[in-house]
């Protein structure tokens, strides 16, 4: 008996959409068409008086003389526990096999967190999500076709966003990586207003407005937004930093791989002057920013996690003279600030309480830099200098001076 039901379940869930209408070998009965009434059924097993009944007839028992316990012999509550371990691609395929599993797969507890992150969500699956989500749904994650073999397919529509907004009034997290976004149809105000996390990583935006930021008025549209992930969004423009800086609760901003963030000291200066008041985590890996831009972010006192990585593996000049701006993050000395009007002036930056720092692939990060970090970065707990110019001797000296700091260097 042990392990057999799960083996049978695996054989069912591995069928693709075109072959998922199958017979169970143990039951030898044909799958019937799901009646229209069943499609509206919402099953709640907490109040189901028939929990525990397996509904197996004599003919079924006759066909299982091998002594094994098969999947449909389990009561509904046990089936629900098993199915809850599957991803939603598999749950949808499983729901197509018979009426009983269709009903179990509709249970609202399975759709509180909807994750289609392992595979691309097809048009059919995007539509099925709308049938199953409820007011209890807190998180939705779907993956689009961008950067796949079928790069021209668009599955994210205005109607889909409108429906999840209406059906999920308590939605907190929405992740839409690799989707196409047509700005002529979908604007930022069309997204749910209740979000605390929005992930648009690896997306492709077309018909973007040339005269304003896509994130204009984001602070009032999503006032509770805490996490914004824009990794590898090549469409992201530096002037949008000013709109993002106004979000009152934004504490995590990931801009890694946004290759347009360069030569933008004016926008960085305006955004960081009184903005980003709650920002704790800033990811600028593989962004071709220069020393002046990094200096601007040194004026944001709330930052505790900073991620930097040279993008020169993509043929882009990093532009950072690493020693000076890195030390600015940890000292109170006046530094040069380039203002929007082109004039220069000196300003004193507060000493940042950075606890986690990545400085990867910067050859100008030397043993001297490491020694200064050991001396001045008093709050540092984790440091990654992989691919930098530090030597084994410099690392050993740092570990002697700061034994409580986790130092990572995968290049040695």
From TrEMBL:
Gene Ontology CC annotations of this record: SCF ubiquitin ligase complex
SMART domains, per the entry: FBOX
Organism: Polyplax serrata
GO biological process, one term: SCF-dependent proteasomal ubiquitin-dependent protein catabolic process
The protein, known as: F-box domain-containing protein
Domain F-box: 68-114
Domain of life: Eukaryota
Record-linked InterPro entries: F-box-like_dom_sf, F-box_dom, Leu-rich_rpt, LRR_dom_sf
Native organism taxonomy: Eukaryota, Metazoa, Ecdysozoa, Arthropoda, Hexapoda
Gene3D superfamilies from the UniProt entry: 1.20.1280.50, Ribonuclease Inhibitor
